[in-house]
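Sequence in, structure out.
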Amino acid sequence: MITAGNFQKLRILRIDHSGAWLEAEEQELLLPRKECPAEIAPGGEVEVFIYVDRNQQLLATRKRPAAQVGEFALLQVTSIGPHGAFLDWGIGKDLLAPFAEQAQKMLEGRRYLVRVLHDKQQRPIASSKIDKFLLSENRDLSQGEEVEIIIWAFTDLGAKVIINNTYEGLIYQTDLPPHLKKGEKVSGYVARIREDGKIDIVLHRTGSAGREDARDIVLAALESGGFLPLHDQSPPELIRSRLGLSKKAFKKAIGILYKEGLVDLTHQGVKLLKK
């Protein structure tokens, strides 16, 4: 069944002045001419995003929304209507966040982290009630596994994150670089799975692999300037803001580089030695 809110590969039936007509089971969908690729031809396939227009008809577009059904994104409210808030999700047709799906009353011009889902009529809508879509206990992740995360909210402990569009996790304040913003999507690693199944995340690998990552980060910074004004007595916040590393990871990294004969350690900082 063809439903709105996701990408589909559809076969091209014919092309006319309006655009390409695509086979969608028992109906045909129009891909407007201005969005048709130059090499398009009947019998071929094209990947399109399916959405619902103002007349509740299915349409196709090659534009990429900020999120499809089952995903999260930080979206801006363009207007407020009688049924909820309308969010810009990047395809020209705004996405409705019904009042009943708003964790707090949405205001025009503000940005909110939402999940895209289907309503009872299989139309895409948005919900800012993030908690109800996430699992708080691990079921299939392993320690050290690389994951995709979205920054959800900041707390006194650190940053709550969404892991692989499925789990709730936490980056502790001590492992949190200052540049991250709500809604940002980055890669991370499972640092620990607690006894209660909750998941702790770090942005850099731990163990020997993590030490090599930190070494490469420090070396890249040195190669761009030749000197880093950081040392054993530097505040952890300064190291994190400069390199995105914890002080512990930084010290291990410069230790590796020193043993390799690549750097000299001074009271002022770390100096890259010429080869």
